[in-house]
Specification:
The chain starts with a strand and ends with a strand. The chain has four domains: about 5-155, Alpha-Beta Plaits (2-Layer Sandwich), CATH 3.30.70; about 160-255, Glycinamide Ribonucleotide Synthetase, Chain A, domain 4 (Alpha-Beta Complex); about 255-350 and about 395-410, OB fold (Dihydrolipoamide Acetyltransferase, E2P) (Beta Barrel), CATH 2.40.50; about 355-395. It is built from eight helices and 25 strands. It has helices at about 20-35, 70-85, 105-120, 125-130, 145-155, 180-185, 225-230, 310-315; strands at about 5-10, 40, 45-50, 60-70, 95-100, 135-140, 160-170, 195, 200, 205, 215-220, 240-250, 270-275, 280-285, 290-295, 300-305, 320-330, 340-350, 355, 370, 375-380, 385, 390-395, 400-405, 435-439.
Length: about 450
């Protein structure tokens, strides 16, 4: 009898803007694996990596499965077939698949994964990593998906959330989705165990994608149980194929934990900077706000865009304010220099906003009038005089706290307000929860 072995499976880049989805492929693989003599060691993983990569399709997510099996070779061959059959290569998908057959994941994998959260990693680096570490892999196209596949295998959670993804039947792919918005409003009763499902200010449903992919909706939450419960409240007008719950790093701000280097801001990198405002913010046409941050003797240009709805905060900053910003480095173009696109703004220290004004008459409590250049000031009522202006402190309109975009402008990895101090450490896999269900 063969000894059982632990098999880690990483998959990425099987979709294109015109269709398919790596999580749907994972769902199909799990349906197959359920019929085999295997044991799932954890929930399927859905890991979002650097969202500022220019060639990503949607959320730059890769998936991972960890199983115990007596027949790893058979499983690997079958999964390769799934990747071949379910990847949208004709429309530009470049799928990558990695197998790692061992209980413990080496530190080299983990280091690679951490870099993928904030850095741009090329396929050549991924192929070199595979060669140097003698890793079993498979890819189609140019193999860009190997980056995410390696990173998914190497990912270590410091915080986690869950997402339930429901899938359409193949006959419905590409058709318009119809969901009852009232049911999503009702689903808000599951907060704080779920998050980022509905924009109350704009009465907008946030759980449905808009592309032709197989996903009908996705519910994010703190536990597998909470997202399954929330899904029972949702009303849709078509028969779905099923759902699967993923353990994820969504809503953790994972990509913004890296401190950017002010003297080496590489395009497409993500992270944070701490510095002082060194010029008054400028409101551009369209409502976007630009300001500069002094960091280690360098001026870093930052942009806050109108859809984030934190432009009022950005425009209220003044020279001397100390702030922390998180975001992605936008590549310089012919018309614009390198800029950090701001994803959060944390006010650490507010400078005093002092202005010089005409003095107040102590007798009449009225503002004095200027007598002319260098001629002092005089009260028009009683005639009292003064030689100089006085300093007035203007109350600030913003506070020392963190400001994040409107929920409608959140990225997959954005940590929402309700999760600012929340960290999930429990990694226990509970097979009693119906984490996959086929209708």
């Amino acid at each position: 009898m063969q000894n059982e072995t632990i098999l880690h499976i990483g998959i990425d880049d099987t979709d294109s803007p015109k269709g398919m989805c790596t999580t749907f492929l994972c769902y199909e693989i799990v349906k197959f694996l359920e019929k085999q003599e295997i044991q799932f060691m954890d929930f399927p993983y859905l890991i979002r990596f650097n969202p500022n990569i220019p060639w990503k399709t949607r959320g730059n997510g890769a998936v991972r499965l960890t199983i115990r099996t007596k027949y790893p070779k058979k499983i690997k061959n079958k999964i390769i077939q799934f990747v071949e059959n379910y990847s949208d290569t004709k429309n530009g998908a470049n799928p990558g698949l990695v197998f790692f057959q061992n209980k413990e994941i080496p530190l080299t994998f983990q280091k690679f994964s951490k870099l993928a959260l904030w850095k741009l990693i090329g396929r050549k680096e991924a192929k070199q990593f595979i060669s140097e570490n003698n890793i079993e892999s498979f890819y189609l196209g140019n193999g860009q998906g190997l980056v995410g596949a390696i990173s998914a295998v190497g990912y270590e959670f410091s915080d986690h959330t869950f997402e339930l993804l429901s899938y359409r039947k193949k006959s419905q792919f590409g058709k318009k989705r119809h969901i009852d918005p009232n049911s999503i409003e009702e689903m808000q009763s599951t907060i704080p165990e779920t998050f980022s499902s509905y924009d109350n200010d704009n009465k907008r449903v946030l759980i449905t994608p808009h592309g032709p992919d197989p996903v009908f909706y996705g519910i994010r939450g703190e536990t597998a149980k909470s997202v399954v419960k929330a899904s029972t409240i949702v009303n849709v007008d078509e028969k779905l194929d099923g759902y699967m719950v993923f353990k994820s790093n969504q809503g953790t701000g994972d990509h913004l934990k890296n401190e950017l280097q002010a003297n080496d801001l590489k395009p497409y990198t993500s992270g944070f900077l701490v510095g002082n405002i060194c010029n008054n913010p400028v409101i551009q046409k369209g409502g976007h706000v630009l300001f500069s941050l002094q960091v280690e003797g360098r001026k870093i240009r930052c942009a806050v865009y109108k859809p984030t709805k934190i432009t009022q905060v950005a425009s209220a900053l003044i020279v001397g304010d100390k702030i922390k910003i998180g975001g992605g480095v936008r590549r310089a173009s012919k018309n614009y220099g390198r800029v950090i696109n701001v994803e959060f703004l944390d006010v650490l220290q507010l400078a005093k906003h002092n202005v010089s004004v005409n003095p107040t008459c102590r007798k009449c409590n009225k503002r004095m009038k200027s007598k002319g250049r260098k001629q002092g000031f005089q009260c028009v009522k009683c005639g009292n005089k003064s030689t100089s202006k006085t300093t007035l402190e203007i109350p600030r309109k913003i506070q020392c706290k963190i400001y994040i975009p409107s929920v409608s402008a959140h990225r997959h990895l954005t940590r929402p307000y309700q999760r600012i101090k929340k960290r999930n450490k429990n990694r226990q896999f509970n097979e009693s929860i119906p984490w996959i269900h086929v209708f």
